[in-house]
Amino acid sequence: MRIVNFRWINIFVFTFICLFCTLKTTAQFNKDSFKILHKSESYSKKIKSYLAFGETTGKQHFDDVIFIAQEGVLIAKKNGDSVAVGKLKRQIGESYYFKGSYNEAAEYFYRSIEIFEKLNDQQNQANSYNALAKLYRKTKDLARSLQNYDRAMSIFKATNDSAGIAMIYNESGVVFEYQEKYQEAARRYTASLIIDEKRKDSVGICYALSNLAGVFTLQNNFFLAEKYLLQSLTFRKQMADALSLALNYSDLGNTYFSAKQFIKAKLYIDTSNSIAFNMGYQGLKGDNFDLLAKIAEEQGEYQKALNYNKLKTSINDSIFNIEKTKKIEELNTRFETEKKERTILEQKNRIVLQNTIMIAAIVFVILGFLLVYAQYRRYQWRQEAKMQAESLRQQDNAVKAVIDAEEAERKRIATDLHDGVGQIMSAAKMNLSAYEHYTKFQTTEQQQYFQKIISLVDSGCKEVRSVSHNMMPNALLKNNLSEAINEFINKLDNRTLKVYIHSEGFGNPVNSNIETVLYRVIQECVNNVIKHSEANVLDISLVKEANEITATIEDNGKGFEVNKNAYKDGIGLKNIFTRVEFLKGTVDITSVPGKGTSVAIYIPLS
Known about the structure:
Layout: H1 6-26, H2 31-37, H3 43-57, H4 62-78, H5 82-99, H6 102-119, H7 122-138, H8 142-158, H9 162-178, H10 182-199, H11 202-218, H12 222-239, H13 242-258, H14 262-279, H15 282-298, H16 302-333, H17 338-438, H18 444-471, H19 474-478, H20 481-490, E1 498-504, H21 512-533, E2 537-544, E3 548-555, H22 564-569, H23 571-582, E4 586-591, E5 597-604
Parallel strand pairs: 1-2
Antiparallel strand pairs: 2-3, 3-5, 4-5
Helix pairs in contact: 1-14, 1-17, 3-4, 3-5, 4-5, 5-6, 5-7, 6-7, 7-8, 7-9, 8-9, 9-10, 9-11, 10-11, 11-12, 11-13, 12-13, 13-14, 13-15, 14-15, 15-16, 17-18, 20-21, 21-23
């Protein structure tokens, strides 16, 4: 079994995140350059640039979006463009939401809704309802959250907007998840997934898969939760969406924590936190520190747990204090004159600009150091990765050599049995039959005794033939895996064990190593059922898809307590795990005493 060096994985992830953050920050849009670039353009081109800036940058650099969008609001108001004002205010609200400033976020969302209601712009109104519902969901006001989701859904259904309908199914499912109504949550996520798959919307598919994985995690179905999250992660890496990647890594960390795989959990949470720090996503940082504290506590590292809890509390207190301060500022500004409001806004913008220039200079120096350091660490990692890859290749070759040698030995023994012992037994039977023809027995008892000898020899011939065929099945050599399994099952006594087989997708040939290993694994599972389970019904399912083969073997026998010692003590189970690991696959054994056993096998094809 391969042992993964998590220390080097942590170093690699840290290096990757540092480089990622460096490149993303270096590529960050310069606000002064943005204003100069669009100074001489027409209003229509200029406002499109302001809106596009928030849409492309809104989930990565929240302060930049707020700054640019506020300037865009002033320009849109001067040109009487209420639609642009409403959209920009929604962008500002979303940025405050991710920063953890929920009072400011709610204020901008409500202003956006009021504008679109006056304009009777239902599409934008529904999008603003969705944003407000998400905020109430975050603050755990679930009744108001559902109320706003329902308003948005009614608009999207009336306008037959499939993208909007899928979005609301996905977002509102989280509310039912908080209410522990997992069946309804899963129904909504699945409905969203079906719509987004038809639309080929990768972003929507990713969020639906992640949300479904969350429900599976809460129901302790970690196999499916991990599978869906890894599928989502593959899409999100291709899209290079920092926010969704941070959320995906955090979800994976939560799933592995629930499955008590604490090393993996910490690895993914640290990765998520690296991105969240770069983005300034306060809420996600707080959630991650909370989970890191729980991991440290589970591992007996109580000082670390205390430190993480302090960090989480500090973030929560910061959010609370910001909200309180903003409330006071809002009350004061209500009584100020229009001139004073303009003066305060200009001063604030000037201070923000000065601070931005100062911070940009500091960040530039730090980033220069980080870039040099990241390149150095990247070179080191490449050298280490080469050594690790070579070690893994040698391990794979060693396992393959053992399995190939085992199959060759099976073939040799099967040939010796069939051509050697089998032929001798057949000759003995022929000689006995000839002897019977030329011999006259004195009594009936002697003849019956002789017939019994012939019968025993005949049974021996059949047994030798059966053993040789099991060791090297002809059907597997001549046909394919599905037909070989059917031939093996047909030889069983169906009076004591009813076997039902379902297979699909085996029309095209599969790698011979995969077929042989899977045949041996399923053969071992069936033999275990016959020997130990006392079952009378056995279901076998074989499904080949484009990139994977899944096999399940489920019986209604007496079951057993599943634990690690069961895997260590049983030679048959060791063989199953070793063979499947050779194919880079996974085995999941589920069993409850008195309720049967289920073995699920997953083999990747690429």
